[in-house]
Amino acid sequence: MQTTRFKDYLNSLKPKRIAVAGAGVSNTPLIEALLKAGVGTTVRDRRTREELGETATGFERQGAILKLGDGYLDDLDEDVIFRTPGLMPANPALCEATARGAVLTSEIEVFFDVCPCKIIGITGSDGKTTTTSIIAELLKSQGKTVHIGGNIGAPLLIHADDMQPGDIAVIELSSFQLITMQNSPGTAVVTNLAPNHLDIHSDMEEYTEAKRNIFMHQKQTDRAVFNLDNFTTANYAAQAPAGDIQMFSRRDKVSNGVYLKNGTIYEANDDIRTPIMPAKAIILPGSHNIENYLAAFAAVKGLVGHDVMRETARTFRGVEHRIELVRELRGVRYYNDSIASSPSRTIAGLRAFEQKVILIAGGKDKGVAFDELGVEIAARVKKLILTGATAKQIHDAVINAPCYNNKLEILKCDEFPDAVHTASKLASDGDIVLLSPACTSFDKFRNFEERGNTFKDIINALS
User: Fold this and answer.
1) pTM for the complete prediction?
2) Which element (helix H / strand E) includes 105?
3) SS3 (DSSP) at 34
4) Cα-flanking dihedrals φ and ψ of residue 101, to 5°?
5) What is the C-alpha end-to-end distance of the chain, expressed in Å?
């Protein structure tokens, strides 16, 4: 049981020199808390003063030292360094600092040290945000006080002292957050693993090793939840130190966990199965969302009743930017799946529909192959509109797919709004237009939310 409070932790930092590397969403509240507590803090950020604007001025007014721009990590000689998730620990400046004795940590790592309540952590290549949201919704409906954060929502560290021992923190964790973690949540959920973020991670091994940290530091009294249908995560069960291993599967029966059989979702306890609900009652479309519910049910087994599980599945409409129905206009349904920043995620989005769709795809290259996506597009897309830096790669993957039929119309648009308008013009009554890019947004947008909101703004402006 952790006993250190956040305010005590801040007091322990006062004799030390602190650097916060990256002044983004996760670190800004931390910077403000450090400065308010009188901790000497240097804010280091790749952005220039002009780019940070009033944020930089505000930090200085509170007493921060600023090191900005291209040389923001020069002379990194502070005692404790908080890194932003996107700044990898292999960065030479960070390696030199830690070799000199500096402590490298992060906002989320400190939260694990000071959080007074149970933590449920969720990671995976796909589905982690929806699974996190479902778990939080289930617990809230059961009457629990829930704090949701991590890679989703607001940073939780500054609120740790307001949490009570009976509360539950539900945290989405990315590989970038997990890579330096030395602590694991009481309940760890791994939805699946597939190649992702290989433009930042050195290789697939580093990526999967980072993910393993969500369960590798667990205790015998903890719970770990793994996907039996995914080769990598299925093998994690034998590696996990937790005493309570729960599996979930859409394909096979499990001894302990949650699984799908003949259209019904079952809970299993030592091979004794109890039906929970028919899968068709889940309001979110697609088999991948059935999988998300299986993972969520396994995570909260024993904490949430079956009646609450059923009601949540029938009423919870999901998370923004995740196969989100924007509107129906002249018989055409428009879906925003901007969160799909990997091929596997877009494949799941395509499989969510029983008919062929008009797909808008493309964005920044993450170093991931599109071969499998090309096969899915050839089989499940009636018209393809490509945009962004990866347009040619996706095009080539599609036309080289064994099942490619040259009747599939493929168009390229340099600008994102043109791609959306083109899709709308091609659509007719009964069609589905799906934005599911299979790539990150950073070639055109700050993040996937801005990309999704731009798509929705264009669609909602159609007359």
Assistant:
1) 0.77
2) strand 103-105
3) helix
4) 115, 0
5) 58
